[in-house]
Amino acid sequence: VQGTGGSSADSKSSAAERGYIQDRFLQLLAGRRRRRAPLIHRGYYIRARSVDHCVQDFLLKTQSHPRTQILSLGAGFDSLYFRLKDLGLLHHTVVYEVDFPNVVCQKATLIKRIKELSALVGDTAREGLGAVAFSGENYKLLGVDLSELSELERTLEEAGLDNEIPTLFIAEVVLTYMKNSRSDALIQWAAEHFPQACFLLYEQVHPEDPFGRVMLQHFSQLNSPLHSLAQYPDCEAQQRRFLGRGWTECSVMDMNDFFTCCVPEDEQQRVQSLEPFDEYEEWHLKCSHYFVLTASKGMEPPWTPLPSVTVPRHAGPVGMAGTVPAAGCGKLSGIPGMRRYGHRSVLIKPNVILTTGGFGEEDGQHCRMGNFHVLSKSAGCWKAGCVTKKSPDKRWSERLYHTVSCLSDSLALVVGGRTSPSSAGLGMLLLKFDENCNASDPDDIAVELVNLQPAAEPATLRWRHSTSEVTFKGEQYLFVYGGCSALDPVLGDWYFLHPQELSSTVIAVEGPVPESRHSHSACSWEGGVLIAGGLGAAEQPLGSVFFLRELEHGFQWQAVETHPPLIPRYSHTAHVHEGKLLLVGGVWFHASSVPGITVIDLVTGLCLDYVINVEHLEWPLMLHNHSSVFLPNEKELLVIGGGGNCFSFGTHLNPEPVSLSLSNIFTSH
């Protein structure tokens, strides 16, 4: 548990160094310089921002009181006191920090050694006696185990804590490491012993979904299990916990809601532009698995730093129309090339699927995937193999978030993709297949790579876009839409590519232009294309569906109305069959469940959600950054790959393809 505190201090310090957090004291207290990834920086930024938001609100609302106090539980190497003191916000507030005796001993030594810290604590600072490790005029450092409540109470009394003045308790990822009976007793003790009290809690939530399972496993492996989640798995349970233990007001929101509602738009944009970033799914999943809670009692006026009105959410569980059974392809488990994300899979012949690109696991190493892989089905059984490439790897550039479109039985076109999010997008590439290969033997398939640069550059220097086949005046075109580029975090433009000449053609498009998006889905339908969902300009999921319809003189954008409204999502895949649009998986901000399969009737607009039954899978099925191929004869959907970095909890890659049987969806309609 103490190790998690040191790791947290390092991550906050790295975030401060990159400009996410304005706090020069973090580096002094963390000591070591450890550069973290952009995803970790964002995660610790939102944690620091939510705590700071509530603390500053407490100080503002209580400034008319002659004296107030803050009690930080499990404070570790946090810089809260020094930051507030430096900002001149502690004129009449004493800060008490409590942690294990050896942690506060190390912190006290640091403060005495570093002039900038000791100067802020003041001349009166001295080494304490007993459990009081360090004592200044308005700063006390106490070494005591929080789970020993009577000892904590005695030490606080000894240090001069005053039960009668407004008191803010802070527990930032602390109580969850204690047994529930002990943390519950601490919450109740604080309400009972302090007539004017506020509590600020920042912790994990949702242990039951795939990301939550990876998170739980991570902390168990660190030997610091998250105890509170079994009894308090969601925000509502945490709210009931406080209201049932003497607190009269309680508000709670997850970090997606906090970022949207409590961080001003210009600050959101500042943070989003600090570093090249392309881990949106992991960022939003991290935010949906942490919450900030504020509770109070006896405060006049009541202390409510979190707004009660949040952005519209689809409250309560999603209405499920039925279930879709999932079966793992166990025979393909452990075969190289199956574990990856950000790749693309395409049906190149009946029952033959080519998978290219992405990030995954090869030879036990995580890397960008240079090899192509094939799945072929014969006698009802899938077999996997590695493709022979007939030209050097450098042509391929190991890309992620590209598209692959079949032009004929022997040709496919790769459009766009990226290596790193800071580099320019990659252009087009032709894949030529040997027409005489044995489709039932995946190892017999060979692909030749043909570079096409610099043809149609603006159309192709992008990633997280879509490429779909459309028909105009009897001719086929490829419609490239949306995505991101090194210059634009989100694109709303489009190009029509002529598949023979592979150059862009101007075709008139009218109607209301959809808002810019990436990570959406696109499906060819009735000569046009259906665009659904995606991530918009403010990094907010979109719930709109558009149909680009062919007219006599060009195309027209038409909004597709759905009822009930489609829950906004992105990073899903999509297929059209029998007049129905199927959206598979993705990421949404609706926290009570994960997206399964949504079926939109394109005639009536009826929108139905199906949950994927994963009881026969022994591992968490992550349905984002995956690919999927629909096999209409079998009414089967094959999901390949998927997953990603689960914040600092490790990388989860779905180990084998998963077959989803859709027969009940198409028979039930």
UniProtKB/TrEMBL annotation:
Q: What Pfam families would the database entry show?
A: Beta-prop_TYW4 (PF13418), LCM (PF04072)
Query: Which leading EC class covers this enzyme?
Result: transferase
Give the GO molecular function terms: tRNA methyltransferase activity
Q: Where is the signal peptide?
A: none
Listed transmembrane segments = none
Q: Which GO terms describe its biological process?
A: tRNA methylation; wybutosine biosynthetic process
The record's Gene3D superfamilies line, in alphabetical order, gives: Kelch-type beta propeller, Vaccinia Virus protein VP39
EC number(s) reported in the record: 2.1.1.290, 2.3.1.231
Spell out the protein name for this chain. Answer: tRNA wybutosine-synthesizing protein 4
Native organism: Scytalopus superciliaris
Q: Supply the source organism's classification.
A: Eukaryota, Metazoa, Chordata, Craniata, Vertebrata
Which gene underlies this protein? Lcmt2
